[in-house]
Design a protein that fits this description.
Elements (H helix, E strand, L loop, with lengths): L2 H15 L19 H13 L5 H14 L4 H7 L2 H5 L5 E2 L2 E2 H17 L3 H7 L7 H11 L22 H11 L25 H9 L10 H14 L7 H10 L7
Antiparallel strand pairs: 1-2
Length: 257
């Protein structure tokens, strides 16, 4: 396709899949249960952290996680007791276990108590055209407390060549605001133009079939390549095309046709 044809095609798919009817089967449905900013942030961060594997399993375990956090995650983060933390011991989603979750809660308390919250960290280190340094710095702050080394694998680092799919997805949820009632747009100090596409096997393979991506691995270098291609289609809101790439791959099996 020519650039104009490709943009028109993808814009149509964005319009189709950037739709509240798809929320129910997506991890973003978990933070959509809340209205308080901090509850949305924490529910979104934790849900995106475990957003890999079977989608039904992700939703089931993320929902269970909210129950464990009193369905009031910000209150739990700030006011939990040692006994409350022990109630998280048996949580597990694939390789993310109770010990990891307990540290995540302690770290989030540190972030909201001593670093002015999640948004403040990402905004503080944001570069004009991307948030990859922000993600790197966020990980350093997130693990500044004593922790098990194994827990670090659950927060990706773009500077170690990770595409950081899940945290880029979380950032899309928090930053994008287009009045479609899917993404929240509650972080106003970061602009959608700074976001990167949540690159995974579905979006990556679709992007390759459309000629938007040549690199075979879904890593940080591939993400940079895809970002550049999507910014040429819409410099102000490039990650809206995540809806098109993911929808084409998951729901239409486009990359297998």
């Amino acid at each position: 396709m020519r650039k104009a044809e490709l943009k028109n095609f993808l814009d149509q798919k964005v319009n189709e899949y950037n739709n509240p009817t798809f929320i129910e089967t997506d991890p973003i449905s978990i933070p959509h249960r809340f209205t308080k900013k901090e509850d949305i942030e924490i529910a979104g961060f934790l849900s995106s952290t475990i957003a890999w594997g079977n989608r039904k399993s992700i939703l089931k375990n993320a929902s269970h996680l909210m129950d464990l956090l009193w369905n009031s995650p910000h209150d739990f983060v700030l006011n939990h007791t040692t006994r409350d933390l022990l109630q998280l011991n048996n949580f597990v989603h694939r390789t993310f276990n109770g010990a990891d979750l307990q540290y995540f809660i302690l770290s989030l308390k540190n972030i909201y108590t001593n670093h002015h919250g999640l948004e403040s960290i990402f905004e503080r280190y944001a570069e004009p055209d991307n948030l990859q340094i922000s993600i790197h710095q966020f990980k350093k702050i997130f693990f500044e407390l004593q922790h098990l080394p194994r827990t670090e694998k659950h927060v990706s680092d773009p500077l170690k060549n990770s595409a950081a799919k899940r945290i880029n997805m979380f950032l899309r949820w928090m930053v994008r605001k287009d009045n479609r009632n899917v993404d929240f747009g509650i972080w106003e100090k970061i602009h959608p133009s700074q976001l990167s596409c949540p690159l995974d096997v579905h979006s990556g393979n679709t992007a390759r079939k459309l000629g938007l991506l040549k690199r075979k691995q879904n890593d940080a270098k591939a993400l940079t390549e895809l970002d550049e291609a999507l910014r040429k289609l819409d410099a102000e809101d490039p990650v809206k095309y995540d809806f098109a790439l993911f929808g084409l791959g998951v729901f239409e099996k486009f990359n297998k046709i």
